[in-house]
């Protein structure tokens, strides 16, 4: 167990070192985001199955986005494979997401940067900005939960280099028992950050680890060129390279988690949260790097967790028993009123004097 933790920490350090060298924005970085865009998660209980087959999403509306380079969000540099369609839903306990993005099939087992990859980002802290993934000004040597308080951002990253299409990845008993947001089987990991250079798996931190954390996400992936289901690892690479089509990603996590470390976003029915989605792809066959991703927007997108619309519009339906009860009540009231009226009339009737028979 200790060896696994050390290896994981080493990977995180290397990943952060890579991001330090590569996270350079364009000198003229600017954002012209449409801040009125909303992704709506309607109440759809018993609708979604996480299996990579997205027929169960066909009646759920989504939003299509041109995806632009995160560090240089200009339309002339947009991902040329097509737009990303983002859909959301919930069943009162779990929130579900589906991403669809066009792209030729490419898969290199064990090489995540030669395959497609996606990530979600959600605002946690009130001061957390989309730009610079939270916007804390501290560096990797000084960022802590105190120095960056209010800049917390929730992340989920899925690299499919080890993941079998149609199989479920994310939170599992092995990694959750160790109290972190890792996924040693498919690299669908649960993280948090304060800025691009201060990113950690849930449960880990710059100075101390907390074993109460866990990976709350589940997810899977698919490509339209795949011809059958039931894949196993020996079937890799699952399809021929460069076949045209679309990637599909499905995810779920609880609306509310057991987080007490300010590392997970918490969703509430009837409330709005802030989110974004990122996409990595080996354009022209070139491996991608950490900051070389595309994004659906250069600012936060609104996520609405909507209540059950039927409860808002439901009109109580009368029943025969209700009608009989109402009629009986009305009849009783009328009878009571009549009895009062008759009694009142009788009490007002003049007395007739009694005349004995012997006086006649």
From TrEMBL:
Record flagged with keyword Membrane: yes
Sequence ranges assigned to domain Cytochrome c-552/DMSO reductase-like haem-binding in this UniProt record: 54-295
Position of the signal peptide: 1-17
GO molecular function terms listed in the Swiss-Prot or TrEMBL record: heme binding; metal ion binding
TM stretches of this protein: 323-342
PANTHER family documented for this protein: CYTOCHROME C-552_DMSO REDUCTASE-LIKE HAEM-BINDING DOMAIN-CONTAINING PROTEIN, HEME BINDING PROTEIN
Domain of life according to the entry: Eukaryota
Protein name, per record: Cytochrome c-552/DMSO reductase-like haem-binding domain-containing protein
Lineage, uppermost ranks: Eukaryota, Viridiplantae, Streptophyta, Embryophyta, Tracheophyta
């Amino acid at each position: 167990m200790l060896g696994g933790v050390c290896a994981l920490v080493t990977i995180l350090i290397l990943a952060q070192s890579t991001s330090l060298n590569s996270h350079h924005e364009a000198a003229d970085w600017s954002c012209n985001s449409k801040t009125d865009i909303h992704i709506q998660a309607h109440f759809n209980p018993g609708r979604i199955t996480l299996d990579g087959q997205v027929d169960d999403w066909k009646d759920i509306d989504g939003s299509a986005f041109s995806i632009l380079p995160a560090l240089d969000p200009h339309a002339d540099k947009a991902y040329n494979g097509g737009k990303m369609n983002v859909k959301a839903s919930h069943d009162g306990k779990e929130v579900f997401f589906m991403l669809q993005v066009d792209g030729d099939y490419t898969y290199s087992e064990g090489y995540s940067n030669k395959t497609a990859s996606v990530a979600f980002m959600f605002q946690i802290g009130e001061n957390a900005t989309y730009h610079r993934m939270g916007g804390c000004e501290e560096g990797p040597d000084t960022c802590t939960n105190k120095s960056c308080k209010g800049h917390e951002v929730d992340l989920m990253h899925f690299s499919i280099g080890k993941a079998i299409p149609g199989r479920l990845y994310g939170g599992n008993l092995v990694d959750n028992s160790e109290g972190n947001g890792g996924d040693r089987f498919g690299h669908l990991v649960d993280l948090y950050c304060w800025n691009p250079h201060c990113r950690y798996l849930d449960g880990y931190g710059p100075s101390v680890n907390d074993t109460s954390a866990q990976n709350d996400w589940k997810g899977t992936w698919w490509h339209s060129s795949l011809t059958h289901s039931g894949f196993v690892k020996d079937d890799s690479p699952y399809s021929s390279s460069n076949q045209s089509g679309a990637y599909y990603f499905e995810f779920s996590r609880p609306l509310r988690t057991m987080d007490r470390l300010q590392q997970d976003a918490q969703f509430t029915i009837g409330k709005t949260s802030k989110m974004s989605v990122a996409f990595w792809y080996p354009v022209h066959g070139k491996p991608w790097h950490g900051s070389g991703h595309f994004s659906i927007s250069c600012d936060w997108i609104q996520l609405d967790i909507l209540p059950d619309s039927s409860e808002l519009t439901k009109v109580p339906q009368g029943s025969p028993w209700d009608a009989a009860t109402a009629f009986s009540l009305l009849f009783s009231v009328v009878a009571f009123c009549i009895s009062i009226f008759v009694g009142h009339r009788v009490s007002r009737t003049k007395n007739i004097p009694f005349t004995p028979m012997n006086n006649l």
